[in-house]
Design goal:
131 residues; alpha+beta; 4 strands
């Protein structure tokens, strides 16, 4: 029996949506979450083990210039974002008078002789979603 076209399209859209959510979950996990030895079952690292994978904040040229102009460099350097931050998330710094919005444009895992760390690149002005 053939399903109506609307039902088939809804089924395809639901499947596509589930695949997107599944990929998002996988991308949010640290690389060590997949080896099973240190975290087991593909779970995210516990906060106690978060120091194993420090998050490094990088700035684009425009974000760096904006931070220097408004004295935000120290606050951005001290920022501790969780590993679960995703591309297109907004990061707002608020001081007494102003709100400064930055957007996460890139996530990059860096592996070297010192271990692995996550680099999150912030851009300013915070742009709308690029997708």
């Amino acid at each position: 029996m053939m399903l109506p076209k609307a039902t088939r399209n809804a089924k395809i859209a639901r499947h596509r949506h589930m695949m997107i959510l599944e990929r998002r979950d996988v991308m949010a996990k640290a690389p060590s979450a997949f080896d099973g030895a240190s975290h087991g079952d593909g779970r995210l690292p516990s906060p106690a083990r978060h120091a194993i994978h420090p998050v490094v904040i990088a700035l684009t040229a425009t974000a760096s210039r904006h931070a220097a102009d408004y004295g935000l460099s120290t606050a951005l350097a001290a920022l501790q974002l969780p590993e679960t931050c995703a591309v297109d998330d907004l990061v707002s710094l608020e001081n007494t008078a102003d709100r400064h919005a930055f957007s996460i444009i890139r996530r990059r895992w860096i592996a070297d002789g010192n271990g692995t760390r996550l680099e999150i690149t912030l851009d300013h002005p915070a742009a709308a979603s690029r997708r």
